[in-house]
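hi! just following up on the protien thing from before. the input was this:
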Amino acid sequence: MTKQKEYHILSLSGGKDSTALAFFIKDNMPEVFEQMEMVFADTEHELPETYDYLNKIEMFLNKPIVKIKPYKSFDHIYSVYNQLPSVTNRWCTVELKTKPFRKYIYDMMKEKGEAPVMLYIGIRADEANRALTANTTDNYINEKHPFIEHGIAKQDVEKILSNAGIGMPAYYKWSGRSGCYFCMFQSKNTWLNLYQHHPDLYFKAMSYEFEPGQGLKKGHFGWNREYPLREMIKPENMQKIRDNYAKLLEKKAKKHNISTKLVNMYSDEILCDEEINYSDNACKFCHL
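and the predicted 3d structure came back as:
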């Protein structure tokens, strides 16, 4: 009996979890890996370290990454919305990732024929609740969560990357997340780290902000709820943010019974609920 045709796609972000999933599938699901496409939705505003890491992934796996771009740039969409994306209006994810990804699948089916799509997502077993909030409503897409099925947690992800020899993305030395350099979900401390490591990107992000009353723009006027970026890098504010961050590190380290060094490595992921004061589930979709 002929097996029904299926498409196998891994949603790759350039982060640790989706990258580890690619290596996990290669080692444990070779029949899937052979057919699988790794697809990266490029917002065109990723960190330089992300693009470098994607190149490493291709070399280590000897498999090309399909890079899809938005059909309209962030700058164009921003001019149409006349408002920055925010935690309550995340048009950046929809316009720069979700829509281009769905278009890619539609175009693929037009060219190769309709068939079920197996979409592999790097949600870990220790964050399985994210599988509920990120679940797609498209009938033709079947989400697969191998890490949840096999009980793969954060420490296992790190071991997979270490054993593969590729290691962690370089931005983890100073940031706890993948995604756009101006992501509104990143902590104030990470904003300062961006200023330290990529001042050009910090000032680019700053250029999108505006003052209340300027032009016709309404609502959220900056990337961070507390500070406009031009205010954040004033010495007195930088010191305040760094001091508060150090206190949060100590608090979270005690709560999770881990070292402050480990908390610092995953700062945005662990501190999200207190420093950024956002729902922890809200900041996950585009950072798999």
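Residues 272-288 have pLDDT under 50 and may be disordered.
The longest strand covers residues 7-12.
cheers
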